[in-house]
Design a protein that fits this description.
With 191 residues, the protein is of the alpha+beta class. It has a 6-stranded antiparallel β-sheet with strand order 1-3-2-4-6-5, with helices on one face. The mean pLDDT is 85. 28% of the residues lie in helices and 11% in strands.
Length: 191
């Protein structure tokens, strides 16, 4: 695999990784695969693979299914449909149900049109939040705007820890992402 020549010819082209500089020719698997693997979550690959009927070791195969919305605004796999496509989350009860199901259904894998992946060990859900604060699940390649991170028994206190670290970074005049900490019935969520 390598960069498309039309991308390399763009004035605004950039490498997706320091280990894969822009140049014509293929990128060796020993450079590409570790980078691609870092777009996948560190947990639940067996569950994701089972739902998709793809080996958890097949990095490219997994990303072909769940890589349309990844970190860095990169999209891997089938091209996205033009426009904004969303599945609205009707209310707090529905959102709570979705978050409760995340350990068994990471990133809502297998749902029609849902294709997203974020690295890390914590359960999280990329969502689309409109200007009125309504939460929807992005589908058909529509990019997410926010990340919901519910607290988990396995990593108790991680949401509060992340909120604290972001507040500390802000106090040090760094520019961390904006976040909001909410406490629904099933535990805190940071976004």
């Amino acid at each position: 695999m390598g960069y498309d020549r039309s991308w390399e010819a763009c004035r605004s082209a950039f490498p997706v990784s320091l280990t894969m500089p822009l140049r014509s020719g293929p990128v060796a698997a020993d450079r590409l695969l570790p980078w691609l693997a870092n777009l996948l979550p560190e947990t639940h690959l067996a569950e994701i693979g089972q739902r998709l009927k793809v080996s958890p070791q097949d990095i490219v195969g997994l990303l072909g299914h769940i890589g349309r919305d990844t970190a860095g605004a990169l999209s891997i796999g089938e091209p996205r449909r033009t426009g904004v496509h969303l599945q609205p989350v009707p209310d707090a009860v529905a959102l709570e149900r979705i978050l409760d199901e995340l350990p068994a259904k990471p990133f809502l894998v297998g749902e029609r049109g849902v294709s997203m992946s974020l690295a890390g060990v914590q359960e999280k859900l990329p969502v689309f939040v409109d200007e009125d604060g309504a939460i929807s699940i992005p589908v058909d390649g529509t990019p997410s705007t926010h990340i919901l991170k519910p607290d988990t028994k396995r990593l108790a206190g991680i949401v509060e820890n992340e909120a604290f670290c972001l507040a500390l970074a802000r106090a040090c005049d760094w520019r961390p992402p904006k976040r909001r900490l909410v406490s629904p019935a099933n535990g805190a969520i940071c976004w």
